[in-house]
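Our consortium's second objective concerns turning raw sequence data into structural hypotheses that experimental partners can test. To show how far this objective has progressed, the report includes one record in full. It was chosen at random from the queue rather than selected for favorable results. The single chain below, 273 residues long, was entered without modification.
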Amino acid sequence: MNEQEKRKEMIKKTFDTVSVGYDSPALRFFHESAKNMTPFMKFRGNENILDVAAGTGRLSLAIAQSLPMGRVTGADFSAGMLAQARSKAEAAGIRNAEFVEMDMQEMVFPDDHFDAAVCAFGIFFVEDMERQIRHIADKVKPGGKVAISNFHGEMFTPIGGMFLDRIKGYGVEIPPMTWKRIASEEKCKLLFQAAGLKDIRSEVKNIGYYLKNTDEWWDVIWYAGFRGMVNQLSPDDLKRFREEHLDEVQRTMTKDGIWLDVEVIYTSGIKEL
């Protein structure tokens, strides 16, 4: 197993592990972001849509509800995440969404099959993002739309920076923040241009909100992108780190709560006819 395969397996294992808490209220920026994608795409209501790296199905289910005569197929390589997606679809009575276990880098759907494709917070997990966009576009009909969402600028300021500064003091190596490679409208547009898409547009929305308490911030750490870092700590260091970090986060609280700044870029392009 080469380094790329090891990284992919690590990411898959992490998502399987955090899947039970991925829909925690503290991580509701994923849900808010999904609600914004549907109007951004301007669906007619009868399309056949592909959701790449669908996770627990937030975006798939949001889109499915806006397609009374259409259908959504959500693909993800994490069985744990897909189990959550299927459970939510069943609970909500949504029958025009299906979920398949599939690596987004090796999708076996027919080419020119879907009317459009979306990918929320997933493109940056692969090294060659241009190739990945092209692979997604291959599955879309000529003239169809491809869209992604990604974090804009810095993420979770200021408390995210406080987390990174403190955990570095424990000797934890900070992994590459791969989402930063396309953390601006310009970079997203350049990526789409390089992938051969046309009529590219991009917009940024701030969907930040106040966390009720430090426990909610710990849910963000535990069930989102910081889990791998805290897992490197010994049980004693983890306990001490949590106490120290949550104490400093508590000091940022106002009468409204603890601000979690989340800016999201939505970018779309058209596959050439």
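The partners drew two points from this record. The mean pLDDT is 95. The radius of gyration is 19 Å. Both points have been shared with the crystallography group to help prioritize constructs.
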